[in-house]
Amino acid sequence: MLISRSSGLLPRLRSALPLIVFGLLALFAVGPWITPHSGSTAPRTIVLYGFSILGEVMNEGVFPAFRDEWRERTGEQVELISSFAGSGTVTNQLIMGVPAHIVLLALEPDAWRLADAGLTQHRSWRNLPYGGVVNRSPFVIFVRQGNPGGISDFKDLTRPGIGIIHPDPMTSGGANWAVVAEYGAARRQDPLNPEAGYQMLLGIWKNIVALSASARGARTEFEQGFGDALITYEQEAVRDKARGRFKLEVVYPRSTILSEHTVVVVDRNIAPGERELVDAFANFLWSEKAQRIFVKYGFRSVDESLNLENPDFGKIPDPFLIEDLGGWSVARSEIIDGVWKNRVLKELKR
Fold it and tell me: Would 86 be classed as within a structural domain?
């Protein structure tokens, strides 16, 4: 009888084994999010998604400052779940159902897509401080130590033999900023030539040797030895300089754009009981405390007076904003689609 019971039990155990393994794996997967708490009240949670270069400043700087302030004010514990990738990728993830409460996007057109998908009210971010713009960063050129290519401006990137690493405008908000920086610089330096922007983009994109899904990914490729120049955010250099980790050189173009980064509160994903906390965190991003943290981590504050606190911010003779190009509605249709996609890429057969 004992043998009979064992032989009957063994098949049942074998059939249940996949379910047992799945359960253990699920427990292992959620384990990092489970934190023991001495009290009976579980911490409240904010889910934040953002574009690639924001991970460090949000996880290490801004959120801990908010967490401490919220605890002092309310006595409540609050935790952050965050994820960072290319701005276009993040936008796609939210549209597909990621339950983020707040998203920090590299450019406003990604916010338009969220509104079109019904995740938030149309242009609701414009009701936030500074029209939803939380910080800025000019677009600059990284080169190798000693600047062997003698690069001093965007125009030099059009020379034959210069290999350029660039983020991909199809997935990266930073790449879209780079394209309008290149185009806008040429138009401002040669305002009487309506083809100046097109000629600049054509010359630069002839020399692209690698595209990456995000600005951070492009930086990684460049550091691994690909290419002679990288077009990216100033912030990528400033933060590493402060920590003694920057092994490249920065070239500040005579004229370049100051990228502006948009905060969107994702209304569809916020339950009534979460609204106060989410709105408090969103508004905290423009507090002097948070803006000083952005400056410390290499982002330029929307409060210009605070930018004097970071001596590693470079000087730009002729900075400009997206509004100087007519805003993103014009820039997207006339520069990104009209010139880069429909003229430059077609001529290069890409």
Answer: yes
